[in-house]
Structure formats: structure tokens, C-alpha cells
Amino acid sequence: MICLYSPTTVKRVYIASEEVRWNGYYNTLQITQERECNLSNRRRGPAELLDSLMAVLEELGGLKYVRLASGRRICYKEQGVRREEAKRQLMVLHGLGSSRLASMPGVSDTLLKAYGVKIVAIDRPGYGRSDCDTEQTFKSSVQDIEEVADALSMGDKFWLLGYSCGGAFCWACARYIPHRLAGVCLWAPAGNYYWKVNYIT
């Protein structure tokens, strides 16, 4: 959440927490920090002001990224137990118009800890704070997912959860990297179910 006190200079920035509370049909962010940020005393154009503001938000908000071999960045959010304590590691792929902040709607940290689950929710390329991939295909998206899993030490096999359009990318993972998957969960998924899928072992 951002409050601008003047059209030319940002003087106060409200940082939204990474925690998303599921509230009916809407995701609402809780504001947890308030910081004074004087970006500049000179006039800035809208694009330049937005870039500067995003840089401040990244610094204050503690965003986490994996840098891919291509140089692009994938932003992610973690929930649940620490990596070393995890019995299961789950990557969440969001739907259309969503982001990593939605993660697994409605799940509590208490439940994740009880089952020893670590969640990694990513912004798919071009969403949220992840860089775009102008030549994206299902196969290249799967390569991104595998790179993120390796960078975050999710193990030889990890679980996938995809809802809505995220389900199509889970399906693609089952097609291209079945040997890396412990299992796949699809919530109201979008996709073509005539696609060939290799058996997940």
C-alpha cells in the first residue's frame, strides 16, 4: 500500500506484509510497516518515479528473488517450516491475475508446521515482481520452475500445486520433468487434458 503526499515526491511509503489473509473472494493485505522515504527533491516523470518507488519497496519490503541462468529474476515467497525441517516441499503456481502473495489461500502456518511442509510461492514470469519472458513457452516455463527448485534446494523431487491458469503449468511440468515431481495437485485448473503427460514416478 502506497500513500503519495505530493505528485512529484514520495515522502511516505507504507509497506504491506507478505501475509495474505483469505477473506471471502478477496485477498487483503495487512499493513505492518510505515517508513519515511524521500526519493528526490527534483521533479520526476511518472515512469521514473515508479521505478524509484519500486526500488524503495524492494529494499524495505525484503523481496526474495532467484536469478535464472538467463539473467531474469523470479520473485518468491516462503511459508511454513524451515527448509532443513521440511518433510515435504511444495511450489505453488498462481492463476491469472494473481501472484505469489495469494500462495495457498486459507492455509495457516500452524497447519504447515504440523505436517512439516514448506511452501514456495512464485510470481510466474511477467507477474508481480518477476521479470517478463517475451519468448515464454510451456517448456521454458518448466525450465524456470526447475531452476527455482534447484536454487532453493527443494530436493530431487518436490510437490506442485496449481490453481486456475497455474494448473496448466503444473500439467506442463508433469509432461517435461516428471522425474522431479513427488506429486501434483490441481485446483480448478485451466489446461488441455489431451496433452501427453508422462507417468509421475
Automatic annotation (TrEMBL):
Stored SUPFAM superfamilies: alpha/beta-Hydrolases
Coiled-coil stretches are: none
* Domain called AB hydrolase-1: residue spans: 90-189
Quote the protein name from its UniProt record. AB hydrolase-1 domain-containing protein
Which species is this UniProt entry from?
Marchantia polymorpha subsp. ruderalis
